[in-house]
Design goal:
This protein is mostly helical. It folds into 2 domains: 72 residues; 36 residues. It is built from 6 helices and 2 strands. It starts with 22 loop residues before the first helix and ends with a helix.
Length: 134
């Protein structure tokens, strides 16, 4: 909790985060954690959908207080539709393109003409094979 992003103007997370005066920060963090865990889970139940809805409503409500921002930004608007997507598609990890996005960072850090010494194949080919595994 000590390494989380804090709102503009706050220099650090309060050490006494559990005190009632910091309730909104704690509720905001915990509700975001609940939403993240549900979204990244491998299976979704109706109870999970209900819990996500409750946690996301609490997250947006406390975000307006904690971050002193009354408006909903595009990321929040997109996330507000996740409940319908969960009900329609089930676990989003199975329809996400995130594993492919991980490969982008791998490509940026390598010289693509370099050969993999173990297999004597170009690294770009090796990365493509890794992508297929995901």
């Amino acid at each position: 909790v000590l390494n989380i992003f804090v709102p503009h103007g706050v220099t650090q997370v309060p050490l006494n985060l559990g005190d009632p005066k910091h309730e909104d920060v704690l509720l905001n963090f915990c509700s975001l954690l609940i939403c993240t865990n549900i979204i990244s889970s491998n299976s979704i139940t109706n109870y999970d959908c209900k819990k996500f809805s409750e946690a996301y409503i609490l997250y947006t409500k406390t975000s307006k207080i904690v971050f002193n921002s009354p408006k909903i930004v595009p990321n929040h608007y997109y996330a507000s539709h996740l409940l319908e997507q969960l009900r329609w598609w089930g676990p989003l990890s199975s329809v996400s393109n995130f594993p492919s996005k991980q490969i982008n960072g791998m490509f940026q850090k390598m010289i693509l003409s370099y050969l993999d010494a173990r297999n004597n194949i170009p690294l770009a080919t090796r990365a493509t094979k890794i992508k297929i595994l995901f």
